[in-house]
Amino acid sequence: MCGIAGHFGRPVGPDVRARMLDALRMRGPDAQHIVALGTGGAAIDEAQPASAALIHARLSIIDPRPVADQPMASADGRVWICYNGEVYGWQDEARALEARGARFRTRSDTEFILHAYDAYGIDGLLARLVGMFAFGLVDYRTRRVHLVRDRLGKKPMLYAQIGGSLAFGSTVRSILPWLPSDSRGFSREGIDAFLAHRYIPAPLTVFSAIARLPNGHRAEYPLDGGEVDVKRYWTPAADPAANGAALFADAVEKRLVADRPLGLFLSGGVDSAAIACQLATTGHTSLRSFSAAFPGSAFDESAAAAATAAALGMRNERIVIPASIGEDFDRIVAALDEPFADPSSFPTWYLARETVKEVTVVLAGDGGDELFAGYKRVAKHVRSAWRDGWRLGVPALPDARSKGWRKIAAEMAMSWEDAYSLRFSGLTPNQRRFLQPDAGNLPPHRWRAPDVLGRNPTERLLRWDFANYLPEYVLRKADLCTMAHGLELRAPLLDHRFVQAVLGLPEKVRFTHPPKRYLATLAPELDRLGVFARKKRGFNPPLAGWLQGELAPRRLTAGASLARLTGGQLHADRIDAMLRAYTNTPALAEQVLSLLMLDESLRQLAAEAARGR
Questions:
Q1: What is the fold, at CATH topology level, of the domain defined by 244-374+459-533?
Q2: Domain edges within the chain
Q3: Which residues contact 530 (CB under 8 A, 6 or more apart)?
C-alpha cells in the first residue's frame, strides 16, 4: 500500500515534484523516492526540470528491504512502474516466469508485475492479477504509459491531461501542484455530484481538470503526444461453476501473507464475523481483532464484537471513539482528500489511528452488503419496482426542507432506477436546485450507469451500487481513512473470483431473509454466534452533539464562504436558510454536515491551489 504519482510531457521543476510527494507522505511513511526520467527511460538528475518523473511513498508490507522500493525499473531499464496495492498468490506465476528466464531480485509483487508485463503485455498481466492495485507503468520501448485501477476499485487512480501532457496520482492533492495555475478551477458538475451523493462518483472529481479512473478500467497515453484512451478491462460476470466455499477460504488465506503484523476489524455484524470464523477454523486465532466502541450510543456493537472474538478464542481490543471532534475535524477532512461526507469516516479514521499502533495490516468485511443486498434501502426500493420507467410529472418545489410528501414527489418524478439514488443521497434534487438556483436543469443524479444490469430488481440495484457506491464511497472511505495513518486494509469478500462466484448463485441462495445466510454455509459457526439475530446498527458518530456544539460556529459562516469558494454556484442566503432550518428539523443533520465538510474541503483545496501560482 502506497502513494503514487507521476507526470509526462510538459517539463516541471523539482519543487513541483516535491509538493506532489508531500501530498502522499502519509500514505507511505516507510520510504519516499522521486525518479526523473530522460527521453529513453534512463534516470536523470532529479534536481533539474524534467518532462517525466515517477513519485512513490511506500508502506512496506512485503519485502521491506530498500531493494524493493519504488519507482522500480525492469532489468533493461526501459520499463518503469509506480504501484500501490497488494497482489496475492503471485508466487506460482513467478515460478513460471523464472522458468522462462526471468530473474527476481526481490520478494515483492512490484517486481512480479514488471516481469509479467514483459512476458504477457498489459492485457495478459491484468488477467493474472488477483488483489487490489493501482499503478502507472511507462514502457519506453512502445512509448506508452499505462494507468490501471483494480477491478472493484479498492485503490484510487486519478489523472489530468493538459495540452498533451499527463499527470496521475493517488489523490487530487498529489496532482494539484502539477496543474497550470489557470487549470485549477473547481468543477461545477463535481460540486453538484457531491451535493447529490455526499461523494463525487467517477469519472468526476472536485477539479475540472482532474478525472478519476473508474474501477475495472485502464488508460493508455502515448508519450509522443495524443489523447488518453480509457478502456474497461473487467465487468462483474457470474461464474455459476465456481466453488464459493473454496474461493472464500483461499481469499482469506492469501490475505494473511505479510512481513508486518496483521489484525482484523471486527464489528458485531455478519461480514467480519465470517472472516473471523474462517481465521479460527484455520488456526489463526493469534490475530488480534479491533472493534469501535460508542459508549452510551445505540450504534455501539463493541460488546457483540467482543463476544464473537471470545467465542472464537481471539483477543479483542475495544477502541473508544471520541465523543468530541476537537481539532480533528480539519485533519479528517484533509485525509479525505476532496469533498466527502460519509459520517462513518470519522470513527473509521479514529479506529485506524489506534489500530496502527499495534498492527500494520487489517482484514475487514467490506463488500458483504453489496454482494448480498444487506442494506435496508435495497429491499425498500424493490417494493416499487412495479413502476419501472413510469414516472409522474411533478413541478420543482424550492423548499430547503423537502421532506415527507415532497420526497415522495421527487421520487415519483424520476424513473424507478434513477429514484434509487434518493435512498442514500445527500441532498434531494429539489434541495440541490434550491441551493443552486442558477444551475438550470440538473440531472436526477450523477451516478455512472453500470455496463450490465441484473436479472431481477434486487440485482439491478446492486449493479448500480457496484458501479458507484461500493468503489467511490465504501472503498474510498476505507482507503483514505486507513492510509491516512499508514495502515493497510484488505477485504477478502471482494476477491474478484469470490465476487463472480456469488453473482453466479441462484437468487434464492444469494438473496435471503435475513440477508447473507449464504455466509453461514461457508462459516457454520455464524449460527452458534447468533450474529444473524443482531440488529444492523450502522457506524455513525454523534452528529447532533457536534453540530450543536463544536461545529456550530461553522454554521454561521458557511453560507458566505461556500458562495465565495464556488464562485456563486451556491447562494449564501439559501445555504443559510438550510442551516437555520436544521434548528427545527434535526433530520437535516447529515445535509448540514455535508455543507460544513464541503466548506472546509474547498477552503483547504483553494489554499493548495493558490500555492505556486
A1: Rossmann fold (3.40.50)
A2: 2-232, 244-374+459-533, 391-457, 543-610
A3: none
The cell numbers describing 270, all together, are: 455478519
Handedness of CA 470, 472, 474, 478 (dihedral sign): positive
The pLDDT, as a whole number, for residue 27 is 96
Q: What are the two backbone dihedrals, phi and then psi, of residue 355, each rounded to the nearest 5 degrees?
A: -65, -40
pLDDT tens digit sequence for 394-417: 554 444 444 555 667 777 888 898
pLDDT score, position 386: 86
Residues 188 and 602 sit within 8 Å (Cβ to Cβ): no
Q: How far apart are CA 200 and CA 340, in angstroms?
A: 7
Angle made by CA atoms 214, 217, 222, in degrees to the nearest 5: 110
Three-class SS state of 191 = helix
Is the separation of the CB atoms in 493 and 368 below 8 Å? yes
Strands (E), 72-130: 72-73, 79-87
Pairing mode of beta strands 50-58, 31-37: antiparallel
Helices 109-128, 91-99: crossing angle, 10 deg rounding? 90
Strand partners, 292: 319
152 by DSSP, 3-state: which?
coil
Q: How far apart are CA 423 and CA 427, in angstroms?
A: 11
Cell representation of residue 236: 462483474
8 A C-beta contact, residue 582 and residue 588: yes
Pairing between β-strand 79-87 and β-strand 43-44 as defined by DSSP bridges: unpaired
The set of residues, in sequence order, having a beta carbon less than 8 Å from that of 323 and lying 6+ positions away, is 295, 542, 545
Give the mean pLDDT of 570-599.
Answer: 94
pLDDT digits (tens, 9 = 90+) for 71-89: 999 999 999 999 999 999 9
542 CA to centre of own chain: 23
Q: Which has more pLDDT, 1 or 98?
A: 98
From its phi and psi, is residue 337 left (phi > 0), alpha (psi between -120 and 50) or beta? left
Q: What is the pLDDT of residues 443-477, one digit of tens each?
A: 989 999 998 777 799 999 999 999 999 999 999 99
CA dist 419 and 430 (Å) reads: 13
Write out the H or E segment, with its range, that includes residue 188.
Answer: helix 188-197
Q: What is the mean pLDDT of the chain?
A: 93
pTM over cut 0.85: yes
The angle subtended at Cα 115 by Cα 111 and Cα 117, nearest 5°, is 115
**Residue 18 exposure: Cα atoms within 13 Å on the Cβ side:** 9
pLDDT of res. 409: 73
C-alpha dist (Å) from residue 453 to 292, 371, 411, 419, 466: 36, 14, 21, 16, 11
Nearest CA to 286 out of 254, 324, 315 is that of 315
Packing angle between helix 589-610 and helix 328-335, nearest 10 degrees? 70
CA–CA separation, 435 and 437 (whole Å)? 6
Determine the pLDDT at residue 400.
46
Find, among 501, 342, 330, the residue nearest to 426 by Cα: 342
349, 484 Cβ separation under 8 angstroms: yes
Residue 179's Cβ-side half-sphere holds a number of Cα atoms within 13 Å equal to 27
User: Could you give the count of Cα atoms lying within 13 Å of 129 in the half-sphere of its Cβ?
Assistant: 32
Q: Which of 184-198, 229-243, 486-500, 576-590 has the lowest mean pLDDT?
A: 576-590
Give pLDDT, residue 401. 45
Q: Does domain 2-232 have CATH number 3.40.50.720?
A: no
